[in-house]
Write a structure and sequence with these properties.
By secondary structure, the protein is of the alpha/beta class. It is 44% helix and 20% strand. It contains six helices and eight strands, in the order αβββαβαββαββαα. The protein starts with a helix and ends with a helix.
Length: 223
């Protein structure tokens, strides 16, 4: 092989090397893999599928719960440090313990179950929260419940009926977990509000505000 051929091959090799170097430098960097948000909020739309919950004058609780949870999902996902996980996204029955296991598998750090209330007296109205009776005084769930109820009451103007305790499936998890009753379907005026998309948005905004208060509290509370 003569020198001219060798020189030509060398020039081609150098040209290819320069081309690949320039191409790699100009190539856009690959997008980093999405990271887990600091706080994964499990949003549990109560009831679903064969379990309608309360039903009053053709209004079904399971539908109200899911509508509010989906609005709340949007608000939570807009937060830089939060991400929402829904235990159900459609009208389907999910066993109670499975709701917890799904949330924990998703890495949830806070669990909020959304419900609409009912009572024999149609005059009863307002928002309230429930904590399972295995939680001792001072458990973060009590703090979360009080903050969420207060914020929803402030956002909607509904009466604050406080925080209560009873046996709940929420005892299957150690994470802060509450059930929020956003209003009484058996109260005609409140039932109409619960069907109003604007009012549902106010409820979602209130729950988010309570969540933000709780997260600020946890971050400022020494372990």
């Amino acid at each position: 092989m003569n020198r001219r051929v060798i020189f030509g091959l060398a020039l081609v090799a150098v040209g290819l090397l320069v081309f690949f170097l320039v191409t790699s430098l100009n190539r856009s960097p690959s997008s980093p893999a999405p990271s887990q948000p600091e706080y994964v909020i499990a949003l549990d739309a109560g009831h679903g599928g064969k379990d309608p919950g309360s039903s009053v004058d053709g209004v079904t609780e399971k539908d109200i719960n899911l509508a509010i949870v989906k609005r709340l999902q949007t608000l939570v996902d807009e937060q830089e440090d939060m991400g929402a996980f829904l235990t159900r996204t459609v009208d389907v029955f999910v066993p109670l313990e499975e709701r917890i296991s799904r949330a924990e598998a998703a890495g949830a750090t806070i669990f909020i179950s959304v419900h609409a209330n009912s009572f024999t007296d149609p005059g009863v109205h307002g928002v309230e929260a429930w904590v399972d009776d295995t939680r001792p005084d001072g458990d973060p769930s009590w703090v979360l419940a009080a903050m969420v109820v207060g914020a929803v009451s402030q956002s909607t103007g509904a009466s604050d009926r406080g925080v209560h305790s009873q046996e709940l499936y929420l005892h299957h998890t150690k994470m802060p977990a509450i059930s929020i009753e956003v209003g009484y379907m058996t109260n005609p005026e409140e039932r109409e509000l619960l069907l109003d998309p604007d009012y549902q948005e106010k409820i979602a905004e209130g729950i988010l505000a309570g969540l933000r208060q709780f997260i600020d509290w946890t971050e400022s509370t020494p372990e």
